[in-house]
Amino acid sequence: MSQILRGYKSKSLAINGRQRAAVTMLLGVVILVTVFMTGLLLDEKTITTDLSIRNAPPSFDHLFGTDWLGRDMFARTLKGLFISIGVGVIGAAGSTAIATLLGVCAAMLGKWADRMISWLIDVFLSVPHLVTLILIAFTIGGGFHGIAIGIAVTHWPSLARVIRAEVMQIRSSDYVHISKQMGKKKAWMIVHHVLPNIAPQILIGFILLFPHAILHEAAVTFLGFGISPHEPAIGIILSESMKYLSSGAWWLAFFPGLCLLFIVRIFDRIGAKLRSFIEPNGSLD
Fold first, then answer.
1. Is the pLDDT of residue 15 over 70?
2. Which residues pair with 66 in a beta bridge?
3. Ordered DSSP codes for 214-240
4. What does the alpha-carbon distance between residue 168 and residue 185 come to, in Å, rounded to a whole number?
5. How far is the C-alpha of 269 from the C-alpha of 156, rounded, in Å?
């Protein structure tokens, strides 16, 4: 009887844990969509210059204060988060697509393809992401498209290695061997056996790539190789605020940086909860 009660208790705890994970993910998605849509729909008039209120500290009229040109920092931060989320989503999606393609090809196209792709993964992993990202973004010409392409091209190796290992396990399964005996081609097996089974890993990989993408975008933009200085990107805001921190205008860097870390933390939390929600043995705490 006691064993039955313990089993029932553990099962109810697992259900409650999954419910909490689902609520956490839903709340995070709602916050991200709200921030993104607010930045998208925000009127340009809210970030116009007004020299009469320049470098004003935070107040009820200007929650994040104003900058050296009298622009509202709350509106600029929302616009910057909109740009950063857009770059992060595009870059992470492109990087996930590259990782999926190369990981599947390495596992399914024979030893020669596996050696070549594994060598390519090792080459990219041997060079810091930030250095490669700066070189690619600078070569392309910077801007929104340059930094998004640079992130997509540089952030795929680790995920590709994970997908390759997953496909290797799937390739050795019984149903794949049966498909081979039935004369099915590799393309058919990839579509009907491989991709459906690695879809959770692809989704989790995309979500976990986003924090790296958005932070690297902000870092490259801060250094002057990313988004155009005319755009209110978070990296631009932080770079411009450095000249005014010594004069006591702490809010110019504090609030945008805090909001960027908050968005990154939300995405990281969604990824962790989704991974524990999908994996049977994952912790839901």
1. no
2. 72
3. HHHHHHHHHHTSSS-TTS--HHHHHHH
4. 17
5. 20
- Neighbouring C-beta atoms of residue 262, cutoff 10 Å: 12
CA–CA dist 12, 18 (Å, integer) = 10
Structure tokens at 273: 């909860």
Q: From CA 284, how far away is CA 104, in angstroms rounded?
A: 29
**Which amino acid belongs to residue 203?**
L
Is 151 in contact with 92 (CB distance < 8 Å)? yes
**Cα Rg for the chain, rounded, in angstroms?**
23
Q: Is 160:98 a contact under the CB 8 Å cutoff? A: yes
Asked if 64 and 74 touch (Cβ cutoff 8 Å), the reply is: yes
Model confidence at 163: pLDDT above 70: yes
**Total-model pTM:** 0.81
- Lookup: tokens for 240: 């411009």
Q: What is the pLDDT of residues 224-259, one digit of tens each?
A: 777 777 777 888 888 888 888 777 888 888 888 899
